[in-house]
Amino acid sequence: MQDVPLNSDNTELNRALWKFLADHARHNIQVIVEGDQVYLEIGEYVEVGGEQYGDIPFDEYLKGWGG
Q1: pLDDT band at residue 40, thresholds of 50, 70 and 90?
Q2: Is 2 a domain residue?
């Protein structure tokens, strides 16, 4: 088994989460998972840190954010 670092030890991932929470502080946020009906109704979306065409890399998402 490979040694995979914990998400909690990933500074870039943590900064992206804090930026998301700061940007959406007054919005209702719902956690959904793949397979839930709500997930199926989302349609197209952009993933931060994703690897698909059109996703936003973490460094670009965090650019200029001092948090």
Answers
A1: confident
A2: no
Residue 5 forms part of a structural domain: no
Whole-number Å distance between alpha carbons of 65 and 21: 13
8: helix, coil or strand? helix
Residue 1 has pLDDT above 70, yes or no: no
Q: Count structural domains, the chain.
A: 1
Asked if residue 4 belongs to a domain, the reply is no
Please give the share of the chain, as a percent, with pLDDT higher than 70. 99
User: pTM to 2 decimals?
Assistant: 0.78
For residues 32 and 65, is the Cβ–Cβ distance under 8 A?
no
19 lies in which domain range?
Answer: 11-62
